[in-house]
User: Fold this.
Amino acid sequence: HAAQILTVDICPSNGLVCTSGKDKKLCVYDSKKAQLVKMVYPHLHWIASAAWSPNGHLIATGSYDNTIKVNDWKAISQESKCLVGHTDYVTAVKWREDGSVIVSGSRDGTVRLWDVHKGEAIHHPFLGYNPCNAGIGYQDISDGHTHTVTTVTFQEDMVVSCSLDKTIRVWDVKSGNQVKLLTAHKGPVESLSFRADGNVFATAGGIEKKILFWDV
Assistant:
């Protein structure tokens, strides 16, 4: 890399490592040989996030060009499948365990779900009163954060997101509704990780210099 590295991810199936950053490069390394095996430019701006698909065939990248690319790492090009919908920098991407859906977070404050095969955003029914038509309306999975979404992850039928707005939000994947709002942090929340059993997760913010643990 020729500039700051913004993300690193290890492939769960083959041990390859991908990195991306402010030089617009997506690099793939063989971790056993410590060798670079691929270097490409899938975006025209910084790549803030990169994540391997569960089967190791694809890499999702989120960029400051407001798009997500779904890349076959062996044949990455500017013609990779492009997911368009965010209105600001895409700061976080994550795959669902079955590899069919990507969740993304953005500086526009939204969290979105994407159907990988169709290359389209997934909208969820909002089961409640809609003043526009007094019936069932539709909403994106998130419109709740008021600042940049820093981290997103799947956990079974939930999506959990963290943000610079100091909050952690838990969303029901099927309905798109927010089911929990966690506000114990006093500063931006920048990192999230689940315990292996999925019952507890930890969050951290750099300014606070503390880690909080949450019982799902």
About this structure: Confidence is low (pLDDT under 50) at residues 125-142. The radius of gyration is 17 Å. The first strand starts at residue 5 and ends at 10. The CA atoms of residues 57 and 136 lie 38 Å apart.
